[in-house]
Amino acid sequence: MTRKFLILSILLLPILSFAHGGEDHGESTKQVGVTYAAPRAEAHTDLFELVAIPQNGLLTIYVDHFANNQPVNDAKVEVESGDWKAVASAAGHGTYRVAAPQFATPGNFPLVFTVTAGDLADLIETTLIVEESSQATVLGNLPSRSGWWWISASLAVLIVGTAVLLKRFKSSQ
Question: Residues of the signal sequence (predicted)?
Fold first, then answer.
């Protein structure tokens, strides 16, 4: 009886290791980063907040009111980076687009936006950083496919082993 309990305890012990909370153990752990699928620039002032995303030769600009996060519709959005200047056209729901193929190449691009909406006007500065490889990498600490296979196989063996031991334990009584 004690031997069966010991074997069952050893088989179930790894399950307890998964019941670990997110406590702080003193040392800071390395943060897992998320790289977006597309490079982006973000900025805000007291009046507006914006996100600019270059993709497929266009610069898409999302403009919201900073106070209530409502989209800024029917605004005039001017953008400049170095010698390049352009006026973005409205695409609806606080979204504006402008042709900007130069942001497809890697580099740091200082951007200055002038947003005029009714009697509100603001100047917003940010930097767009386009890296060599801007492919999406989300949560790099996740196990690979082979890692998931080993985890699944281990759990299956654990479940089968527990079922066999429980069946033997019931039949011996």
Answer: 1-21
Q: Which two tokens stand for residue 40?
A: 């982006």
In angstroms, the Cα distances linking 53 to 3, 63, 119, 170 are: 63, 12, 26, 64
Residues whose CB falls within 8 Å of the CB of residue 48, separated by 6 or more in sequence, listed in order: 63, 64, 65, 66, 72, 115, 117, 120, 122, 124
Q: Torsion angle, CA of 142/147/153/157, rounded to 10 degrees?
A: -80
Q: In the chain, where are the structural domains located?
A: 34-130, 143-173
Span 56-114, pLDDT tens digits: 889 999 999 999 999 999 999 999 999 999 999 999 899 999 999 998 888 999 999 99
Three-state secondary-structure class, residue 101: helix
* Six token digits for residue 172: 């011996």
pTM, two decimal places:
0.57
Alpha-carbon distance of 83 to 68, in angstroms, equals 34
